[in-house]
Write a structure and sequence with these properties.
It is built from 13 helices and twelve strands. By secondary structure, it is of the alpha/beta class. The chain starts with 16 loop residues before the first helix and ends in a 5-residue tail after the last helix.
Length: 395
C-alpha cells in the first residue's frame, strides 16, 4: 500500500484515544456519563438565524459558487459593521482588510501554509489549541513554544523568547480569551505584542473565537484596538461560540491586508467558499441578533456551580471571566491523564487532560461548560457530588 506523506510524522499521537475508548465503554455499559469534554455549545442556534437560513436556501442565487474574492458581500459587509460596533475599529473590505473563512480552525491551519517555509519558526502558546503547532510542523516549520504559566496570568512572557529565535520567527499565534486556560489579555499586553512584532518583523495571528463568551460584565478587547496592531497582525473571529453555530462553519479574518491576501491566495486554491445561504444567515446574525444572552447566562450559572463546588472540595479557583472552559490544577499524586481517567472510571465524569494542549498543560485538566442534557446547572452539580463521593482527594 502507498505510504502516507512524511509530513504526517509531524502530527503528534492522539492523546485522547484511551480516554475516548473508556468514554465509549462507559456509555455502552449504560453508565450515566457527564461530559465536560469538547467545547461545543449544547444549546441550539437562535431561531431567527435558522429561519433566515431557510429563506436564503430557497433563493436560487445561493445555489451556485460564491465567486467573490474575499467572501459573500452581504456577509463581509455585515462582519465589518459588527466589528466596528463591537470594538470601535474601522475595517474596509474593499481594501482587503476582511476575509470570510470556513470557521476559524480552517483559517488558522491555512495561515501556516501561506507563510511558513521549511526551517521557519512560529511562536506558539503552550498549552494551546493544537492547530497552531500541528500545521506549523506540517508546513515544514518549527514551533517555538511560549509557556503559559499561572504566575504570569497564562500570558506568554515575551522577554523569555531568545532574540535569535525571534529573529527567525515569521508568525506568532495568540488566543485570548484563551483555550484551554480561560485566561484573558489586556490591551497593555497586546501593546507589548505589537512592539515585539514590529521589532522582529513577525506577523501576529490572534485567534479571537471567544471574545463574546464573557461573564460578570467583562468585555474582551480586540487585538486590533491597540495602535499599530493593524500593521503587524490579523484576528480570527468565529460565529461558532457566539451564536451556537459550530456546525455551520463560518467566521472571518480581519486586519492587515498583506496577511489577509496571503490567506486568501491559499484558500482560493483549496476551497470554493461556504454555501452562500449560510453566509446570508450569518450576516443576518451579525446585523440583527443581539448576542446570545440566554446561552451565556446558562454558561455562567454552570461556571458558578462548578467552581463553587470544586472549591468546597479543596480547590481554590477564581471564577473565569470568559470562554467555555474551567482550567483546574489536579491534586498531588496524579498526572493529568491519570486524574482524567480516574474521574471517568470512578465518577463517570469526562474531562480533558491538560497535556492534550502541550507539555505545559501537565498538572491541569480542562472542563467545558457545554454539558449536554443540563438544563439549569443540575448536571454540573451532580458531577461535583460524584467527585465528592467517589474520588479520594488529598491536598
Amino acid at each position: 500500500m502507498v505510504e502516507y506523506a512524511k509530513r504526517f510524522e509531524s502530527i503528534p499521537p492522539y492523546l485522547f484515544g484511551e480516554i475516548a475508548r473508556l468514554k465509549a465503554k462507559a456509555i455502552a455499559e449504560g453508565k450515566d456519563l457527564i461530559d465536560f469534554g469538547i467545547g461545543d455549545p449544547d444549546q441550539p442556534t437562535p431561531a431567527p438565524i435558522i429561519k433566515k437560513l431557510g429563506e436564503a436556501a430557497a433563493d436560487p442565487r445561493t445555489h451556485r459558487y460564491d465567486e467573490s474574492d474575499f467572501g459573500w458581500p452581504e456577509f463581509i459587509n455585515s462582519a465589518a459593521s459588527w466589528f466596528n460596533r463591537r470594538f470601535g475599529v474601522t475595517v474596509d473590505p474593499a481594501k482587503g482588510e476582511l476575509l470570510q473563512v470556513i470557521g476559524s480552525k480552517e483559517a488558522l491551519a491555512h495561515i501556516a501554509w501561506a507563510f511558513i517555509d521549511p526551517g521557519d519558526v512560529a511562536l506558539v502558546p503552550d498549552p494551546g489549541y493544537p492547530v497552531y503547532k500541528v500545521h506549523t510542523s506540517m508546513a515544514g516549520g518549527t514551533p517555538f513554544f511560549m509557556p503559559l504559566l499561572a504566575k504570569n496570568g497564562f500570558l506568554p512572557d515575551l522577554t523569555q523568547i531568545p532574540s535569535d529565535v525571534a529573529a527567525k520567527a515569521k508568525l506568532m499565534f495568540l488566543n485570548y480569551p484563551n483555550n484551554p486556560t480561560g485566561a484573558v489579555a489586556t490591551k497593555e499586553f497586546f501593546a507589548e505584542v505589537v512592539e515585539f512584532a514590529k521589532k522582529y518583523d513577525i506577523a501576529v495571528i490572534h485567534d479571537a473565537a471567544y471574545t463574546e463568551v464573557c461573564f460578570d460584565d467583562y468585555k474582551a478587547p480586540s487585538f486590533l484596538e491597540v495602535p499599530g496592531a493593524m500593521d503587524v497582525g490579523i484576528e480570527m473571529h468565529s460565529l461558532s461560540k457566539t451564536y451556537n453555530m459550530t456546525g455551520w462553519r463560518i467566521g472571518f479574518a480581519v486586519g492587515n491586508p498583506h496577511i489577509i491576501k496571503g490567506l486568501e491566495k491559499m484558500k482560493s486554491n483549496i476551497d470554493s467558499k461556504q454555501f452562500p445561504a449560510i453566509s446570508v444567515a450569518a450576516g443576518y446574525a451579525l446585523d440583527c441578533v443581539d448576542g446570545n444572552p440566554e446561552t451565556f447566562a446558562l454558561y455562567q450559572r454552570r461556571r458558578d456551580i462548578l467552581i463553587d463546588g470544586l472549591n468546597s472540595l479543596g480547590w481554590n479557583l477564581p471564577k473565569s471571566k470568559a470562554t467555555l472552559y474551567v482550567w483546574i490544577p489536579i491534586p498531588p499524586g496524579y498526572t493529568s491523564k491519570e486524574f482524567s481517567m480516574m474521574l471517568l472510571e470512578k465518577a463517570s465524569v469526562n474531562v480533558i487532560p491538560g497535556t492534550g494542549y502541550g507539555q505545559y498543560g501537565e498538572g491541569y485538566v480542562r472542563l467545558s461548560l457545554t454539558v449536554s442534557g443540563d438544563k439549569n446547572g443540575e448536571r454540573v452539580a451532580e458531577a461535583v457530588n460524584r467527585i465528592k463521593d467517589n474520588v479520594k482527594i488529598e491536598w
